[in-house]
């Protein structure tokens, strides 16, 4: 009997130890399940997304600031697009050309080529009173406007010139001068502190004195000497010349 009692006690101790071990094992799975749950909540928690938002926001703001510091306006005055191409040389050389079946004014063609090359916003200088569609009346009106120093009212307006640092300005040479609508444009807007880069299409007179006229009308602006002059015989095949010139401006 005395031998049986120690054996019973030993057996009870073994059972107790097994019970404790079982209890520990039953609680173990709860710990990793909580860890997994916590990690899932942290990965989708608002704090995590907020921590990356300022970096993205600051980066975007910086990019926008850099873009705005080099923001380009490409303003141009062009011949009416449906003028008969016969005899247009008297005003500004080959002022109408065809591109992919579309009739374009030469300055419009140059302006769009510049935009395709370096970017920027296109702005066509248009007048309230339309120009004649026939060549001879158009020549006469251009001469009359010049002699009267007319300032045709513009039908298009710029909303915010402050966003632009550079103005690429294109026009045909009309009677050795700026077209009168370009005078209106330059007198309506103040481009002080900006760079103006002219380009011209012509029938043989080049810029005449139009670059100096632009500088006089915009004394607060810097008128670039890196200009582009395209003569009558070169308009049709000028695309590569325009691309090279646009790239030389260092604005892209």
From TrEMBL:
It holds the Pfam family Flavodoxin_4. Residues 105-228 form the Flavodoxin-like domain. Keywords: Signal. Transmembrane segments: none annotated. Residues 37-64 have a biased composition (Low complexity). InterPro entries: Flavodoxin/NO_synth, Flavoprotein-like_sf. This is Flavodoxin-like domain-containing protein. It comes from Acutalibacter muris. Gene3D superfamilies: 3.40.50.360. Residues 24-36 have a biased composition (Polar residues). Residues 24-64 are annotated as: Disordered. Residues 1-23 form the signal peptide.
